[in-house]
Amino acid sequence: MYRTSNNVLMNHLFLNGSKKHGVTTLLLILLVFSDLCGAGEKDFRKQFITNYKTFQFGAQEKLVKGTSARHMQAEIRTLVDEAMTTNKDYTDRLYMLDVANAMASAYQHWHGDIKALTKEIEKLIKAELKQEEIRVAKLMRWKKEERFLGNFVMKDHMAEMEQAGVAPVIYPHWVHRIWFECKVCHQDIFAMNRWRNKVSHQKIESGKQCGVCHDGKMVFGVKDKGQCTKCHIAGKPEAEKLHHTDKIDHARIKQVAERVGAEWNIENLPEGKVPVDKFGFINWLNLKENGVFKPIHSLREGFAHEVRDNKILFKSKGKIDDVIFDHKVHSNWINCSSCHPEIFRETTTNDVKMIRMSKGKFCGYCHGKVSFTFADCKRCHNQKKGAGKAGVIIHQGAAQ
Ligand code: HEC
Ligand code: HEC
Ligand code: HEC
Ligand code: HEC
Ligand code: HEC
Ligand code: HEC
Asked: What average pLDDT score do residues 102-113 get?
């Protein structure tokens, strides 16, 4: 019977992904107990948990036999009640229920019948696991809506959206990139950061954020009841079209391009299709080279389109090929102020490391989010190791 409750514990450690967390929770629980209980009780629980966690079956038997049945029942009941208070999160709650379950099992073994309470605890644990399953599924559901590179699910106001009966929003970066360079939005309309803008309908309706364009004139607006689901689309079958390039309606793209002053030249599409890389994401450079599209730089009059025309060589420290960073390609699309000084200082001495990129720093600020992913090694490691190149600037790295 110990096995059953340990299974629950293992499950719970597994679900939460780390043993460390389990230990932290244990400490936390011990702290909570020391606040709640009298000295005798505290010692019992502390000892019980220690034995339980370290598989000291002999010591556990001695402890349980040496504690009165009444005392133990009270311990279990308090523990269950404490676990079910509303301020507990899933991890803490399940952990406490698991300990209570183990106590009930031990009681049953050495003191006698306690089936009703055991059943109650098992039911509570089952319900918790079920709820967690639903929560994880929900989380994965929104993750799924971001599977196409550059699709962001926006759901800060989840409660209000649920109340209004609308789904969360998908902001499809890639659709907008067809007509607009990054410069159009970053930083004039949006900070290049998912947490800084605090997007809301109030701002949109007052002509800011999405409302700069989605005003009901230039582009469909946010007040028209018939149009809500164009943006509030996450999780709906209609969202499929935002996850595939083969569902693109070229005639509409062209129409919109003409309306906003961009170009979409269907006749230049290689083999009549949007070129994608081996991961299925749009190859924007190929589109540009083939003259398929010409997005606009800015919505502002007198905007200065600034380009820096040089290349920076990152010499590889490992066996892998070197990296050429093309300032021209990047500054054609992106404002200097989007990269400098926040992502890179305007020097060659930034401490760029692959491990930090994979966590969203440096090149990883865009690559893997809205630009081709890190799995595509050769697209960055594109220069034979040690071959050098005339006219390039050499990245120095941080002084050691
Ligand atoms: C039509 C507007 C628009 C265009 C064009 C646009 N973006 Fe964005 N971008 C957004 C919005 C909206 C967000 C999300 C802001 C938020 O959630 O607060 C965003 C967020 C980002 C983020 C933040 C990601 C994070 O994890 O914090 C990056 C990086 C980004 N964009 C890069 C680009 C790049 C590169 C381009 C050009 C290739 C581009 N964007 C073009 C509207 C745009
Ligand atoms: C720079 C102008 C601009 C901004 C800013 C902008 N959009 Fe758009 N958006 C457009 C245009 C143009 C279209 C194409 C409309 C059409 O098909 O008539 C569009 C279309 C869309 C579509 C439909 C895509 C499809 O293919 O069905 C969605 C969804 C959308 N925008 C969401 C948003 C959201 C959410 C925001 C703000 C976070 C936003 N947009 C900000 C210009 C913009
Ligand atoms: C151009 C895209 C777009 C359209 C069209 C649109 N919304 Fe939104 N809506 C948004 C964005 C973006 C948010 C902020 C999402 C978030 O919580 O992060 C939002 C948020 C909301 C919220 C949460 C409360 C708030 O103030 O932010 C409600 C409710 C809502 N929308 C209802 C509607 C209804 C009803 C319609 C149709 C009449 C509609 N929306 C049309 C983009 C749109
Ligand atoms: C996509 C991001 C990005 C954009 C946009 C960008 N830079 Fe850079 N910049 C870099 C990187 C990466 C380096 C090299 C960092 C290193 O080696 O430590 C760099 C280095 C520099 C340097 C020092 C090396 C050199 O080229 O002389 C200057 C100056 C500079 N940038 C200016 C600019 C200006 C001006 C613009 C706009 C026209 C611009 N950058 C746009 C990423 C960017
Ligand atoms: C601010 C966003 C941003 C940052 C930061 C950034 N990139 Fe890019 N990068 C882009 C965009 C946008 C493109 C255009 C192609 C695309 O989106 O797929 C691009 C294209 C490229 C290309 C293909 C162009 C070519 O020359 O063939 C390479 C290689 C590349 N980036 C390397 C890097 C490296 C290396 C770094 C870091 C030193 C970096 N990028 C940082 C946004 C960014
Ligand atoms: C978006 C561009 C980009 C992509 C994609 C990329 N790298 Fe890198 N990588 C860099 C840059 C820039 C450096 C240079 C950092 C430095 O100076 O050490 C680097 C450095 C490295 C290094 C040297 C050690 C280190 O940690 O800095 C290794 C190894 C490496 N990359 C492996 C890979 C592998 C393997 C892949 C594919 C899974 C990959 N990279 C994809 C940009 C990229």
From this structure: 93
Gap from CA of 286 to ligand 5 centroid (Å) = 13
- The pLDDT value recorded for residue 28 is 44
Among protein residues, the one with the nearest Cα to ligand 5's atom 24 is 329
Residue of 319, 323, 324, 383 with the most ligand 6 atoms within 8 Å of its CB, for mutation: 323
Cα four-point dihedral sign 332, 336, 342, 343: positive
Sign of CA dihedral 330, 332, 336, 339: negative
Token pair for 107: 């009681």
The answer to whether 146 touches 239, Cβ cutoff 8 Å, is: no
Q: Of 32, 74, 26, which is closest to residue 52 (Cα–Cα)? A: 26
Task: Give the list of residues 6+ apart from residue 313 with CB closer than 8 angstroms, or none.
Answer: 322, 323, 324, 325, 383, 388, 389, 392, 393, 394, 395
CB atoms within 10 A of CB 11: 15
d(CA 394, CA 158) in angstroms, rounded, equals 47
Structure tokens at 241: 């079209």
Cis peptide before 237 (omega within 30 of 0): no
Q: How much is the pLDDT for 234? A: 95
Tokens for 159, please give them: 């409660």
Nearest-angstrom CA–CA distance, 90 and 204: 36
CB 296 within 8 A of CB 262: yes
Q: Burial letters for 57-69: b for 16+ Cβ neighbours within 10 Å, e otherwise?
A: eeebeebbeebee
Residues 127-153: pLDDT tens digits? 999 999 988 888 888 989 999 999 999
Work out the pLDDT band at 87, boundaries 50, 70, 90: confident
Residue with CA nearest ligand 6 atom 33: 377
